[in-house]
Amino acid sequence: MWTKQQRECLAALGIPVYEKMGSVSMSSGTLAISAPEKLGSVSKSSGTLASEIPSEEGAVTAPELNGKDDENVSLPPVFYRLGPWILQFSSDIPAASFDWLRDLSSFVGGRPVQVSHAPADKGVIDCGEYARDALNSEQKQALWAKLKPALN
Fold first, then answer.
1. pLDDT, mean of residues 119-136
2. Do residues 33 and 45 make contact, with C-beta atoms less than 8 angstroms apart?
3. Least packed by Cβ within 10 Å: which of 16, 75, 111, 119?
């Protein structure tokens, strides 16, 4: 899937090289079909561990991940602008959104719009702990206490 030059550029930038799910690669005369599973899982085609299948030149293998587990990799926060607020979440919000976010959108008469970064002049409201549909009354009060100062 990647050319040698693309692999070199990705490696120079420190970006791991992933193969497309369901792609077919020929290595050492055997057919290996990559499945959407983690490294170290059993390959569907040969019954061998995926990490034992020789990778193409420059592809990332398990030891090249700098000892980081999937759970330890921190993704950058995601920011959304909604009315006077910049809301921060740990990941993209679902398309259907959360109940409280739909209510808030109705209140300000707009929808949340993802922005690439938080402006320096605006306070960012961390909504990570509220990233769910059902909030109890204490959580709603705490969230509103964070949101209310921006309305003044």
1. 86
2. yes
3. 75
Mean pLDDT over residues 16-22, rounded?
A: 69
Question: pLDDT by residue (tens digit) across 47-79?
Answer: 444 444 444 555 544 444 455 555 566 788 899
Confidence of residue 20 (pLDDT cuts 50, 70, 90): low
How crowded is residue 50: how many other Cβ atoms within 10 Å of its Cβ? 20
Residue for token pair 């990799």: 73
pLDDT of residue 29: 47
The answer for residues whose C-beta is within 8 angstroms of residue 24's C-beta and 6 or more apart is: 31, 32, 33, 34
Q: Where are the domains of the chain?
A: 4-72, 78-151
Say yes or no to pLDDT of 142 above 90: yes
Name residue 37's amino acid: E
β-pair partners for 60: none
The two structure tokens encoding residue 54: 């020789």
